[in-house]
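Below is how a single chain appears once it has passed through the pipeline. First comes the sequence as given, then the structure the pipeline wrote out for it. We keep one example in the README because the format questions we get most often are answered faster by looking than by reading.
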Amino acid sequence: MSIMWKYLDKRRAAVQVIKDYSSMKFILDHTDEKIKEEQIHMTGLGSPSLDGMPHAHNPQAGEEKLVNSLNEIDILKERYRQAVEYMRWFVPAWKQLSNDEQYVLDAFYDDDSGYGSGAAEAVARSFHIEATSAYKKKSRALDHLTVLLFGKE
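Resulting structure:
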């Protein structure tokens, strides 16, 4: 293990991992469509704009369009690869959490709920506990996820 892991704020990283889930899921769900769109754009013909204004002629315009589309497809494929890698790492750890731990972490860190937006009160009502106990429950769940993702130490 690299020495840098010793200095990584694993709790903050675990929170960011939870927050990144929806973005990664979106990338996995929509990358194929984006690549198809880019391939259509790559092979489509451009039409001249007849606005009466003189235009500079670029003899490499078609080549530039092709290269730009290929670069965009490479970027989309790399993002997809990273999202797959993220899911292989995160989902098994998430599944090891109890349903209660998943609920608490979703309530506090889901994209739709900002910290302090009533998450503690919602968790407290759900478990019939005080808000301070809800924060402790969140802390324990986050500690458990952090250990599952990054290991001890």
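Residues 9-42+61-150 form one domain.

See the next section for the split statistics.
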